[in-house]
Automatic annotation (TrEMBL):
Organism: Photobacterium aquae
Family note: Belongs to the glycosyl hydrolase 2 family.
Signal peptide segment: 1-19
SUPFAM superfamilies recorded: (Trans)glycosidases, beta-Galactosidase/glucuronidase domain, Galactose-binding domain-like
EC number: 3.2.1.25
Name this protein carries in UniProt: beta-mannosidase
Domain of life: Bacteria
Amino acid sequence: MRIILLCLLFSLSSCVVMQEDNSWIVTEKSLNGVWQFQLVNGEQGRSDIEPSAISSMIVPGHWKTVGLDYAGTVKYSRQVELAPLSANSRYWLIVGAADYASDITVNNQVLSRQEGYFLPHRTEITSAIFAGDNQVDILVHSPNEPLGEDWSLNKHLIKGVLNHHDTRPGGAWSDHGQDWNSGGIWGDVSIRQTGPVVINQLAIVPQLLEQNARLPKPGRRWPTAADITIELNSLQPIATELTFTLTERETGEVEQWTSRQQLEIGDNTVLATVPIKDRLLWWPWDWGKPNLYDLRVDVVVAGQVSDQHTTSAGFRQIVLDSDEKKFRINSHPYFIRGTNYIASQWLGEVSPKQYQADLGLMKEANINSVRVHAHVAGRVFYDLADEQGILVWQDFPLQWGYADTPQLKNAATKQAKAMTQLLSNHPSIVIWCGHNEPPWDASWMQYKYSSYRPEQNVVLTDEVYQTLRDAKDGRVVRKASYTHEHPWLGWYSGSYRDYADFSPPMIVSEFGAQAMPNWLMVQSLIGSSSPPPWPLSEEALATLAYHNYQSHETLNIAHIQQGESLSQFWNNSQEYQRVVTKFAAEHLRLRKDKGIAAIYQFMFVDSWPAITWSVVDVERQVKPAYTELAIAYQPVLPVVVFNPRDLVPKVTIMAINDTLQAWDNISLVVRNRYGKEQWRFEGLTLAPNQIQILVENKVLAGLSAAMEIVLLDSSGEVLAVNQYRAEDF
C-alpha cells in the first residue's frame, strides 16, 4: 500500500493524507490558519480598522479580534490540495463552530447550511472534491437583531449572553448592546477521511450499582456499568465489527470487547453496554479524585478500520432530591458552592491555557461548581472541568425574551438536542438548564418593555425543557433559572443584611454586587492616565455605563459613597462588594440542611473590560471580594453570628463541614485582631457533612467586632480560619 503525502508550502493550502488505491485510512488534517476573507453584506460599527484593509483572517477566531466591528455575512475562502482519492473513502469537512450560521460550498457546490453558534458543522464532501486544487468557501452569517421597539424582548438569534446581556459592550438596555458582534469561525476546521461507515455520535451513560446499603467512598472502586449509543452511517448494507476499548487513565488498565453488527444503508443506531466491573469513580475535587476513562470505538469493515472515535468517560451519579432539598453525588449529600462564568464575549479568544487558569482560580477560591451562564463555552473548557473535578451547570443559551414563532421554537429544540449530544460524555456536566429568566417568570420586564406579555415564551421554554429531558443521560434537568432564585439583596433591592433573615429557594443561582476592576483599567476606561476631574463628567459617566457600570444601583440601592475622588470611589466600590460577598455567602451556607442545596455567586470573571459583578477582572486581577469568597467557601468554615450594636453582644459560632471527614477533640480559638484578648474552647467534635453549633449565645467580654476565628485539629494543625472586620456585621 502506497501513501502519497503532499505538503504545499504556502499559507492557503493544506497537507492531507489520502489513499491512491481502493482501500482507505482514517485520518484528519487541520485547515486552521490563514483564510481569505471578504465582507458580503452587513452593518459596520465602531471598527478600529478600515474594513477594506482586511483581506485575510486567522481561523479559528473572530473578526472582532482584528478590530472589526461588523454584523452580517462574510465569506471565508481557501484552496485545499488533495492527493488522488480512494474510491471507497468518504471525506468530510468539519467546522468546529461558526457564529452564528454557516453555509459550506466546495468547488461551487452548495453542500449544507447550519444554524447554531456553538455547534460543529460537519458535511460530507466526497462527491464534490477531486485530486488537485479544491475551492472551499464558507459563508458565515452573524447579523445583529434588528433594532426597534422592544427588540430585545423578541430576539431571533439563539446566542444567550453573546448578543443580549448586562455584561456585553453597551449593556443590556442600550441600542449599543450588540456592538462588537461575536461572529466568526471560532472552532477548528479540518478535513476527515473515513471508510464507508462513519461514526456520527457516541454517547455513554454511566451507572453505579447498588450494593447492600453500602455507599461509595472516594479512592475505592465501585461496581459500575454503562449504556453506549452509537449513531453510524453506512454507504451500503455491510457487516461490521465494533471494537470497544476502555482505558483507565490512572493506571492504564485496559478492557476490550467486540460486537458484530449488520448495518443497513444510511443511518443506523447501535446499542451496547459496558460490562459490570469495579471501577474508580469520578469525584468532585473537594471530595476525591476525578477519575477518568477513555472509551475508543473502532468500526471495522473487511478487516480495516472504517472509522474510530475516542471520548472521555467518568463513572459518577448525580441526583437532586427535591424532598430533602439536597444534591447527591455518588449517593452522598453534596452542598454546591458555585459561581457563574462567562469567559469572554468572543469565545475563540479564550485559549486552553486561559480556561485552565480560570478553573485553577476557582479551585483556589474553594468553588466546586461553575454555571456556564446562558451560553455554551469552548469544548476544551469541558475537558478541563472533567480533569479538574469541577461540577458544571450548563445553560442552554436562552437569555430573557425571544420571538414566539414556530421557527424560533424549532431552532431552539434542534440546538438543545444537539447541545446534549455534543457535551453528553463530560462527567463534569451534572445540570442542564433551559432558559435564564424567561419572560413568563420575569415580571420585572413589565417595567422595561411596553409590549411585555406574562405568557411570553411559555411554549418555548417547555419545549426546550422537554428536549433536555429527552436526553435521558442521568443529569439533573431544570426548566429555568428562575427570578426568585436570584435574590440580589443589596444590589437590585433591599440590603445585603437581609440575607440573614432571607427565606431562600432550594437553589440560589445568582447573588452578588458590582465592583470596579483594577485601578489602571478604571483609568483606561475613562481615557485618563492621571486622576480625572472630580466629580466625573457626564461623558465619563456615559463611558462607564457603556462598560456596564450601573449608577442607580450603586448610588441609590447599595448607597456606595463616592468620596472626594475617583480613587476613593473605586476603593468604596470594591469594599462594598467584599462585604456583600462575605455576608451573603456565609448566611446562605448556614442554610445547609435547612432548605438550600446550592449557591452560585455572580459572577467569576469579566468577559471584557468592564465594571460588573465579577470577583476577577478581565485581566485576571482579583478583587478583594475574590479573597473573601475563597474564605467564605472553605469546605470547613467557622461562622460568627454577632451583632456588635446590641447593648450586651452575644456570640454564636457555628462550623460548616462540607467534607466527608469527621474530627474529634478539635479546638476553637477566638481572638481580637487588634488586641491580645483571646478565648479558647476545647474538646469539640465536628461531624461529617453537617453544620454544628460550637458556641451558643455567649458573652465574651472585651470581644471586638474585628476578630479572627481559628479551628485546630487534635494535633494543633489549622483546619480553617475566618476573619471579620467591624463592617462585616
